[in-house]
UniProtKB/TrEMBL annotation:
Keywords (A to Z) from UniProt: Ribonucleoprotein, Ribosomal protein, RNA-binding, rRNA-binding
InterPro entries to which the protein is assigned, alphabetical: Ribosomal_uL4, Ribosomal_uL4-like, Ribosomal_uL4_dom_sf
Known role: One of the primary rRNA binding proteins, this protein initially binds near the 5'-end of the 23S rRNA. It is important during the early stages of 50S assembly. It makes multiple contacts with different domains of the 23S rRNA in the assembled 50S subunit and ribosome.
BP GO terms, sorted: translation
Family matches, as Pfam families: Ribosomal_L4
Protein name: Large ribosomal subunit protein uL4
NCBIfam families assigned: rplD_bact
Source species taxonomy: Bacteria, Bacillati, Bacillota, Clostridia, Lachnospirales
Length: 206
């Protein structure tokens, strides 16, 4: 099992902790990580874009002029694509961008992402993370003490003081063991996780 240093909120070492290799020490599968990231980005797309084709634009039912003898090119409708106000060629329509992935593959991808952070020394474990009040300055101070930039902060429960304090810091997001995903783990440079959250993650994914 991998041993990691445990820090307090001041950034001082207060001990060590063993991580479960079933979660934080697996063989990294880059292909599954890629699939998981593509899946989340695709599933986040709304797919609600819409434009009208020549059959949907209002008007244009009458032939604008006779076929021959005018000197103009022949036209069948003033709503053809080449006309101002005409329909769009191959117009986009609402669609579903959903990409499916098996549950076992999603879990394996998340484990690979967490393992990569451990191997790169980008997983910072803190003994606890508790703020007396909602204060962005205090949260930024904690992250500075931990030397965590562009961080994903994982707490065991949805502590509103932590969530609201981190909300206004650029490139910092919060999550719980139930809401973490491969994309968020890979997107952030550092993963800051409490000891209780580590135990919860190991309980769920081991």
């Amino acid at each position: 099992m991998a041993n990691v240093t445990v820090y307090n909120m001041e950034g001082n070492e207060v001990g060590t902790m063993e991580l479960n290799d079933a979660v934080f020490g697996v063989e990294i599968n880059e292909h599954l990580v890629h699939l998981a990231v593509v899946r989340q980005l695709a599933n986040n797309r709304q797919g609600t874009q819409k434009a009208k084709t020549r059959s949907e634009v209002r008007g244009g039912g009458r032939k604008p002029w006779r076929q021959k003898g005018t000197g103009h090119a022949r036209q069948g409708s003033i709503r053809a694509p080449q006309w101002t106000g005409g329909g769009v060629v191959f117009a986009p329509v609402p669609r579903d961008y959903e990409v499916k992935m098996n549950k076992k593959e999603r879990r394996a991808a998340l484990k690979s992402a967490l393992t990569s952070k451990v191997q790169d020394n980008k997983l910072v474990v803190v003994d606890s993370l508790a703020l007396a009040e909602v204060k962005t300055k205090e949260m930024q101070k904690v992250l500075t003490n931990l030397k965590a930039e562009k961080a994903l902060v994982i707490t065991a429960d949805n502590d509103q003081n932590v969530v609201l304090s981190a909300r206004n810091i650029a490139d910092v997001e919060t999550a719980t063991p139930a809401t973490i995903n491969t994309y968020d783990v890979m997107k952030h440079n550092t993963v800051v996780v409490t000891k209780d959250a580590v135990a919860s993650i190991e309980e769920v994914y081991a």
